[in-house]
Specification:
- By secondary structure, this protein is mainly alpha-helical.
- Helix content is 67%, strand content 1%.
- The chain contains 28 helices and two strands.
- The chain has a two-stranded antiparallel sheet with strand order 1-2.
- The longest helix is centred in the middle third of the chain and has 33 residues.
- The radius of gyration is 24 Å and the shape is globular.
Length: 560
């Protein structure tokens, strides 16, 4: 009998050989990749080059701060690095949650058994759907302002709030929910009793990188909290993204954006290198109701206790952080605080981002299929992801800057032009589908070799619910964005997103927060039910793996 290490080595070699073979000709892969490549060049590379060109040479428009020399002099100043460091500090508390509470709860839920694991997932559906940073921040500020005072009078009240603490006080449940879902996939081992600690470590590192990437582009809390009159007067708060949101597009703004893009590029390359070097992949278990191998009695009892405590803690956290917001949404009035009609707000906030999200995910999925299934470059095809990796974490706001004029306007007077994000391909979705198709392509090869009927459909259907999940995430993120609509609003009649209208309502004379305007109850119910169904029927059957494996996701022995 061969040693276990020798068996594993043979199976890994067989898997690599299976990946190198494909029943589709290479040109099909290039055809599938071509749309994403063209959109990538137009909506990612070109805006980045435009940013760099503006920062180095300027537009010659004669605007204040448009001189490239003075712009870069400011960028290399201690004040700018202080703002950049403050932006990075927004990731400290999320990383603390990612490194401590999240893996502990995920481990307990994965060891306690199927019932407890699904119970934890069911509770997580609420914070996952309740992604509403602007509404939560505004409601928190309103509830903590001086009695009888308005948000516009913070300067007189001398209130000094910290956006980092407000972020965790309102969105800590969301951060925890995302991390727990990812760790549950890392601890899950379909068909075997093995649990890979190295996988959890890799997932934790990737989550930390993403947290830093989001922190450096965080605008909502830096604008609404750090940028409030009481804090803005001191001049010590704020992030580079706050400057980008309120400034005209010139050499000064471009120069401040370039270091942010550079940091994000390094983070994206680091994340991509980890994914490729560790052979990270997503495995789907087609067995309904599959469960991990039961843990030892002592560990199981500890896991059950930990899961019960975790569920109680999650419920309390949801009640404390999201309870007031949920009450306001349930009983809110969906009435815009301006002359803009509710239909226009619905169109710019939800309808347009949905269409964009569908296109972004569809193009990314097609390219991922070409890379991971057709494999035009053989077993090294996944390394094509390094081309787009520098833009993996770059948000829409940085890509939007070159579209603005020197007066900060888009020069377009339609809702579509102002509401549509500049990117038409989702690079995170490209990575996600590539990791999924890696495994499903191997399964397709095995099913074909075994002469199984409908091998392609049986292997590739898990990509359909993954597409629904990816569209939902992109849709919600873009619908609740604040920076992009802030940049595109120039007072020229273009309808801004509902979140921007909420901000105006909260900081203006009315000083009224209307959460139902930015996140209507019907949409909250839709996203909560969607998160619940996907969690229990699909995400619960997804496992994250690194390196070679002993078995396939369906429990089939690999060749060798």
């Amino acid at each position: 009998m061969q040693p276990f290490s020798a068996q594993t080595g043979e199976r890994e070699q067989a898997t690599r050989l299976a990946r190198a073979r494909t029943p589709l000709p290479p040109f099909v892969g290039w055809i599938l990749i071509a749309p994403a490549a063209v959109l990538f060049l137009l909506t990612y590379v070109w805006p980045t080059l435009s940013l760099l060109g503006e920062s180095l040479f300027g537009s010659g428009g004669g605007q204040a701060g448009a001189d490239p020399g003075r712009a870069w002099q400011h960028v290399f100043s201690l004040r700018y690095f202080g703002r950049l460091g403050y932006a990075l500090s927004y990731a400290l508390l999320p990383i603390l949650v990612i490194a401590t509470v999240a893996p502990a709860l995920a481990w307990a839920a994965s060891r306690a058994g199927l019932v407890w694991r699904r119970a934890v997932r069911a509770v997580l559906a609420v914070p996952l759907a309740a992604f509403a940073p602007v509404g939560l921040a505004l409601l928190w500020m309103q509830r903590h302002r001086p009695a009888g005072g308005s948000l516009a009078s913070l300067a007189e009240a001398s209130i000094n709030w910290d956006g980092r603490l407000v972020l965790m006080a309102t969105m800590g449940a969301f951060v925890l929910a995302v991390a727990v879902v990812c760790y549950l996939a890392a601890f899950r081992a379909p068909g075997t009793g093995r649990r890979s600690r190295s996988t959890a470590v890799v997932v934790g590192v990737l989550l930390a990188i993403v947290a830093v990437g989001f922190a450096i582009q965080q605008y909502t809390f830096s604008d609404l909290v750090d940028g409030a009159p009481g804090n803005r007067a001191s001049g010590v708060r704020g992030t580079p993204m706050l400057r980008l949101g309120v400034g005209d597009f010139n050499a000064q703004v471009a120069a401040e954006a370039v270091p942010v893009v550079a940091v994000l590029a390094v983070l994206g390359l680091a994340a991509a290198f980890i994914v490729l070097r560790t052979d990270l992949r997503l495995e789907f278990d087609p067995t309904e109701g599959a469960d991990d191998q039961p843990a030892p009695a002592g560990h199981r009892n500890l896991a059950v206790i930990g899961s019960a405590v975790g569920i109680v803690g999650l419920v309390l956290l949801i009640l404390v952080q999201l309870g007031p917001w949920l009450v306001e949404v349930a009983g809110g009035v969906e009435r815009p605080p301006t002359r803009v009609t509710g239909l226009a707000v619905l169109q710019s906030t939800w309808i347009v981002p949905l269409g964009v999200a569908i296109v972004q995910v569809a193009v990314a999925a097609a390219a991922a299929f070409g890379i991971a299934v057709v494999r035009p470059l053989g077993r090294r095809s996944e390394w094509l992801l390094l081309v787009v990796a520098p833009w993996l974490l770059v948000g829409n706001a940085l890509l939007q800057l070159p579209r603005l004029t020197s007066d900060g306007e888009l020069g377009m007077r339609t809702v579509l032009a102002a509401a549509v994000p500049p990117s038409w391909v989702s690079i995170p979705a490209l990575f996600l589908f590539t990791m999924l198709f890696r495994t499903q392509a191997d399964r397709w090869t095995r099913l074909r070799s075994a002469g199984q009927p409908n091998a392609f459909l049986r292997a590739m259907w898990p990509a359909v619910p993954m597409a629904i999940l990816a569209v939902g995430v992109a849709w919600l993120m873009q619908a609740q964005d604040l920076l992009l609509p802030t940049m595109t609003d120039a007072g020229n009649g273009v309808v801004a997103h509902a979140q921007l209208l909420m901000a105006r309502a909260a900081t203006g004379p009315r000083s009224t927060v209307e959460p139902a305007l930015g996140y209507p109850l019907v949409m909250l119910v839709l996203f909560t039910l969607g998160a619940l169904v996907l969690q229990l029927t699909y995400v619960d059957r997804i496992a994250v793996r690194v390196g070679g494996g002993e078995t396939s996701t369906s429990g089939e022995r690999l060749p060798g």
